[in-house]
Specification:
Radius of gyration: 21 Å
Number of helices: 11
Mean pLDDT: 91
Order of helices and strands: HHHHHEEEEHEHEHHHH
Low-confidence stretches: none
Shape: globular
Oligomer: single chain
Length: 271
């Protein structure tokens, strides 16, 4: 059942879709270790739905994410001292054609740039040295990404990187009043004042661009986990109603993203 659940998340398939795909694909059957010669049957969609419900009710996916992170720690794959924070918006269905005649009440709208989005926001904290996800949170889309930062920072972090949306974090009251967070070096990208104020080209402007470029070189590591989640696993839209179920789903995908990056690095310790 766990193998079937992982295949469903890796290939972004529905319950009925993964059941049919296992019958159609020899690679899927081999991964599932299903032998049709012995008349073994694939679990049906209803069984998978019940299994996923058990995972959600017992917080198994959060435990899976934590155990994989502990595995990375034991094998020296995680560096400490720095975290990169970022967030992305996942769209939710806006249709009201359901039994209640309403949109998901736990999802909200937010304006980003000149466009409105309706859904949730996935926040992640990434190790600045290796790029593995070490913490995550799921909120409604209208929750500010700056409010979730304290939940993504580790106890031994000394430096935090982020884009311009996290600028001036050190001025927030919850940061100044926290003994640990107040000592952190917040290396977040700043807005580009040389565009708005039309700075004259000179050593100051060149140094500002150089420093922002160096911060962006490190911060860009957080974009690769999002590429895995959205492009490879197809996580562009929420699948379930309510933040709790989608948080369970996100823990699974983040654990799989770490596993994907580990295998991509050529590590041979997992079979």
């Amino acid at each position: 059942m766990l193998r079937m659940y992982l295949l469903q998340n890796w290939f972004n398939l529905s319950d009925e879709g993964i059941e049919e795909a296992i019958y159609d694909s020899y690679a899927f059957r081999k991964f599932m270790r299903v032998d049709f010669l012995d008349e073994e049957q694939v679990p049906d969609a209803t069984t998978l739905c019940k299994f996923r419900k058990l995972l959600h009710e017992n917080n198994i996916t959060e435990m899976l994410f934590g155990q994989l992170h502990a595995f990375l720690e034991r094998h020296g794959k995680i560096m400490h001292g720095g975290t990169i924070v970022d967030a992305t918006i996942e769209d939710a269905p806006t249709s009201t054609k359901n039994a209640e005649g309403k949109r998901d009440p736990e999802m909200h709208s937010v304006k980003k740039g000149n466009q409105w989005y309706f859904g949730e926001r996935l926040h992640i904290g990434v190790d600045a040295g290796t790029g593995y996800i070490h913490s995550m949170e799921v909120t409604a889309a209208n929750v500010s990404e700056r409010d979730i930062v304290p939940q993504l920072v580790r106890e031994d972090d000394e430096v935090v990187y982020g884009d311009a949306g996290y600028s001036n974090m050190q001025r927030r009251e919850e940061i100044k009043n926290d003994p640990h967070l107040s000592r952190i070096d917040w290396r977040t990208n700043q807005q580009k004042p040389y565009r708005k104020n039309k700075w004259e080209e000179g050593p100051g402007t060149q140094w500002f661009r150089y420093w922002e470029y160096q911060k962006s070189r490190v911060r860009s590591k957080v974009e690769y986990p999002f590429l895995i989640l959205k492009r490879i696993f197809g996580y562009r839209k929420v699948r379930y109603r309510g933040l709790a179920k989608n948080r369970t789903h996100a823990y699974t995908l983040c654990a799989c993203a770490n596993l994907y990056m580990l295998m991509q690095s050529g590590y041979a310790g997992i079979t």
